[in-house]
Structures are given as C-alpha cells and as structure tokens.
Amino acid sequence: MTNTSKSTRILAYDMIRIAAIFAVVMIHSSSAYISAPVHTLDFFLGDIMESLSRIGVPLFIMLSGALLLNENKEFNFQKMKQYCIRIFILLYIWSFLFAIFYEILIPLVGNHPISIKEFLYSFIFGQYHQWYLFMIIGLYLITPILKLFIKQENRKYIEWFILLSIVFRFSVPIMNLLSNTLTNTTDIMANYVNQYSLQFVDPNLTYFFLGWYFTNCSLSKKQKNTIYVLGFLALMTTILGNYLLPTASSVFYSGVSANTLFYAAALFLFLYTREWKNVPTKWVNLLSKMSFGIYLVHPIWLTILKQLPISEAAIIRIPFNWIGSMVLSLVTVYIMSNIPVIKKLVKI
Questions:
Q1: Among 112, 130, 132, which residue's Cα sits nearest to residue 121?
Q2: Would you tell me how many other CB atoms lie within 10 Å of the CB of residue 223?
C-alpha cells in the first residue's frame, strides 16, 4: 500500500481525471493531421499532439480499476447493476441526440438527403467516442468476478497476467509492424502469436488491473524510476516512430501498443504519487466533476468549430479546436449540471 494520504489520493484522482479528459479532447482535435505527409509541419505538430494525448482513455480505465477493485471498499452488487443500467441509459439517450445532430440536422443544414438507415446505425452503435461507454459497461459487469482475484495475496499472479499481456498483446502491434516492414510480409508476427490463443489477456483488463496495482501495491524508488524511464522512452518512440519507417503507420498511436501502455502507466503513477500542494482545489474539483459531461458533449462543439473559416494550418487549427471545444464543453456541462432533470444527462 502506498503511503499517500487519503485526501491527497482523492486529489490525485481528480488530477488523473483532468489529464485524461484534456488528452481525449486533444486526440479528437489533432487526429486529422497525422494523415498529413510525413516531414511536413502539419504532420510534425499533429504527431506530437497525438503522441502526448493517446493516454486519455487508458488513464480513465486505470482510474476505474483503482476505484472499483479497491479491496478496502465493500462491493455492492445492487449498486453495480444500477450503475451499469444508468450508463446504458445515458449511452442511448446521448446516442439518440448525436444521431439527430449528425444524421438529421447536419444534412438539413448542408442540403443533403436524410438517411433513415444511417440514423438507425448511428443510434445503435453510437458516435466514434462512445465506444468507451460500451467498453466500460463490460468492465463493470465483469468486476464482481475480478474482485475474487484482485487481492494483495495474489499480487504475483496479477503481475504474471500483466506480463503476459505485455508480451502477447501490447508488444505485438509494433513487432508486427517491424516484421512487415523488414520482411515485406503481412501480419506474420500477429498470426504467429495468435496461435497461442492468449486473447483473454485483454489490454483493457490490463489497464484496469494496473489502476489497482499502482494504488494498492508498494513500489521501491528504483521500480518507480524504471517505470518513468520506460514511459519517457515510450513517448519518444511514439513521437519519432513514423520518422524511422518508410511509410507512416497509426500503430504507434494505438492504445493497445506497448509504447502507449508504458507512457500511460508512468503518467498515472506520477500523478498518483505526487503530493498535490498549492493547487486551486476549487477549480480542480470542478473540472474533475465536469469531465464525464465534457467527454460526452465535446464532439458536437468540435464539429461546429471545424466549420469556422479559419486557417487549416495545424499550428492554428489544433489549439483553436482543442481549447475552444474544451471551454465550450465545460460551459455547456456546467449550465446543464445546474438545471433540474437535465443535470442527470452529464453525471454518473
């Protein structure tokens, strides 16, 4: 168990939440620019922003693991079921609103035909960022079973699971990319590893377990420093990776690549173990509480901002879209959170 005090730990959770939501909005603000030609300024800036921010969802998952797998917190089956039902309802309320916005309002404004098929597809499967809600419901549903295993006494077995996941899941995308590049073959490494049928060491479960691990298991200074060094090297690999290959690849930005795992783990550990003093607690608490709502609404503001006639150069457009959608989403969620009934749409 770390020696972080209870009050500091909660503040650390807030800081992790804030870092995660800033990163998620950054991803969606800069992702278009990693399709630009390599060695251009647009790609260079997009690459840096994408590399820095790809840890958004992993941080959220690790935070969920820290909270839900806590051994000292009694598990309540009824609360868990109610929580999952609430997220499911919110998922489809917002999915319906997004479908109206993207499949009806935008086509009407652009004088394009409305497709009922596209509307239904958008409603059922959600928008590009809603995959996280589907995934987190699945993690919550399996949590009662995981709680039987995730205990201090099973630390060695949990470490073994994490190691298996690193070797057989997180390392594969980059190893596969390298083998494809060097041997001019297709997915030879992935096909080889898949023969071991270790798909159950799921990357999202690994992030979930790491959240518990870092907040419940003591680590020596040497171990922490090793994780920080690996995290820094992983970030540099993400930033520079595409400059070392003949053809750019999105593999380096994947949440299931080892570089993202090490970078996310290092940042989570740093944010959790740091003593947060002299921070504006009021603003930190506000941003933390608004993070879920910001996650939900920011794509709408981002879509609107992208239509404004300003320069498409990455050096202007990325910070404009990022800061603009963050601020507008925060204001929107703050207003919604103070309206009876409506506030339930942006809180869990």
A1: 130
A2: 12
Rounded CA-CA distance 278/271 in Å is 15
- The answer to whether 323 and 25 are in contact (CB under 8 A) is no
CA 264 vs. chain centroid, Å, equals: 9
- Over residues 205-243, the pLDDT tens digits come to 999 999 999 999 999 999 999 999 999 999 999 999 888
Residue in 235, 305, 243 with CA at minimum distance from that of residue 270: 235
- For 278, the 3-state DSSP assignment is coil
**Alpha-carbon distances, residue 187 vs 166, 251, 253 (angstroms):** 18, 13, 18
DSSP 8-state class, residue 169: I
Q: Which amino acid makes up residue 216?
A: N
What pLDDT, in 10s, does the model give residues 21-52?
Answer: 999 999 999 999 988 888 899 999 999 999 99
Q: What is the DSSP string of 238-304?
A: HHHGGGSSSS--GGGG-TTSHHHHHHHHHHHHHHHHS---S--HHHHHHHHHHHHHHHHHHHHHHHH
Exposure class string for 237-267: b at 16+ Cβ within 10 A, else e? bbbebbeeeeebbebbbbbbbbbbbbbbbbb
Reported pTM: 0.93
> Which amino acid would we find at residue 260?
T
